[in-house]
Amino acid sequence: xxxxxxxxxxxRRDQVFxxxxxxxxxxxxxxxxxxxxxxxLTVSFDGFKAINNLNLYIEAGELRCIIGPNGAGKxxxxxxxxxxxxxxxxxxxxxxxxxxxxxSEADIAEAxxxxxxxxxxxxxxxxxxxxxxxxxxxxxRVLALLRASLSAEQRDWIDHTLETIGLxxxxxxxASKLSHGQKQWLEIGMLxxxxxxxxxxxxxxxxxxxxxxxxxxxxxxxxAGERSVVVVEHDMDFVRSIARTVTVLHQGAVLAEGSMExxxxxxxVKQVYLGE
Length: 276
Known about the structure:
Elements: H1 3-10, E1 34-45, E2 48-59, E3 63-67, H2 74-81, E4 89-94, E5 98-99, H3 105-111, E6 113-116, H4 128-136, H5 152-165, H6 180-192, E7 198-202, H7 210-223, E8 228-232, H8 236-242, E9 245-250, E10 253-258, H9 260-264, H10 267-272
Parallel strand pairs: 3-8, 3-9, 6-7, 7-8
Antiparallel strand pairs: 1-2, 1-4, 4-5, 9-10
């Protein structure tokens, strides 16, 4: 078998992948309508408690905003959820039955948790369509430049994702030509290709124009319901535009939680976060 034939065989797309089948994650138990349980979590770095007895619960299909000053533990919390950091104590469960603390980062991603970092990481030399196609591929070791024809189901899912992220008209443009905001949307689309049940989004509007911020608010709001979305953000105007429930972290623990109005009127939040 020639090299070209081997490469074509490695990137075959003539079958329907498991993630395209509805309810592809039967292990995820949402019988109690809670998708994420973080209980009594504590983690220290050189004696500093980045997370201090943290308790947080995310409901299935909800959009949750997480705010807090620098050093409040927001990034460390997401590191624990995605398996990058192991806590000193406590528990983290995905649904009723999936113990995240017993899993690798790859296994957690496969189970249905996707994370978008602040800086977009897309393949700039590939088209928008190819970025989404590559995100769909099961074998990430091979860059699918020589590929068999996509199945109808696969193409439909890419087209649906392009429409969701608002980049249908730019599908054949290289990602390098996208604006900063469009690259953020493309990366969200790449995560959506993997059908996550829980999407963690870190400071999605940093560096965006006001128009891009408005579009990002629409996008994230549209995603809630089919999946749970947790947004960590510093821009309070943006948080107000999407907030349903807001959790305020301070010194590694939950300081306050409720609607944006309730959080803004909380005396403790005004003191430690808003500087009042």
